Amino acid sequence: MYAIIQTGGHQVKVTPGGVAKLFGTAGEPGAELSLDQVLVVEKDGGELVAGAPFVANARVIAVVDGETRGPKIRVFKKKRRKGMRRTKGHRAVYTQVRIKDILL
To answer: The domain containing residue 97 runs over which residues?
Structure first.
């Protein structure tokens, strides 16, 4: 059984007992989340349930493990022959969650 959820503008495939990274901060460690934006659910028998755009009455129950940060991304801008050079850095913040159950 698995589900594809939408969170933070990204689509993430989750399975019960698995770990997923959600973009941004979602809560304190140990807090329970209910994710409602479920796009697709695949049942144990292999039957696929797709939503338009979301599956009705489907949700994913997750527990927050903590926050992590992604790799540092360098943003470099340059204009030739002008002497203009700018460097900025960016690290995205992710929330690591443990999937407890997929309810349909």
So the answer is: 2-103
